[in-house]
Design goal:
The protein has about 110 residues and is mainly α. It has one domain. It has helices at about 5-25, 35-55, 60-85, 90-110. The longest helix has 24 residues, at about 5-25.
Length: about 110
């Protein structure tokens, strides 16, 4: 795995963590403002790591496509596990299609 892909993988994990923190900050009767710290830090770090992967030569369409698609899929699955949010069969099929789309984008970029 190249450094660009490693930076992108870390960017995805950090972005998903920030998004899950946003859910923690806004969920419940009273806002939990302390959760906004990992939200802001996480999103800034995620964009910085995305820019690192781009500066190392990764194509924008591939990097951004993989980043957003993987983030959506991971967020949906983790929201089910952590917050008991619905994950329907249709949503699961969408996650599978997202995975297929990411593979196709990567294969297309290889040419």
């Amino acid at each position: 795995m190249t450094v660009a892909w490693l930076a992108l993988a870390v960017a995805i994990v950090v972005e998903v963590g920030a998004t899950l923190s946003l859910r923690m900050a806004t969920h419940g009767e009273h806002p939990r403002r302390a959760w906004y710290v990992p939200v802001v830090v996480g999103y800034v770090a995620a964009f910085a790591l995305l820019s690192v992967s781009l500066s190392l030569g990764m194509q924008l369409g591939v990097a951004y496509g993989v980043w957003t698609a993987t983030g959506v899929a991971l967020t949906a699955v983790l929201s089910r596990v952590l917050f008991r949010e619905p994950l329907t069969l249709t949503m699961a099929a969408g996650i599978v299609l997202i995975g297929a789309g990411v593979v196709l984008v990567e294969l297309g970029a290889a040419h």
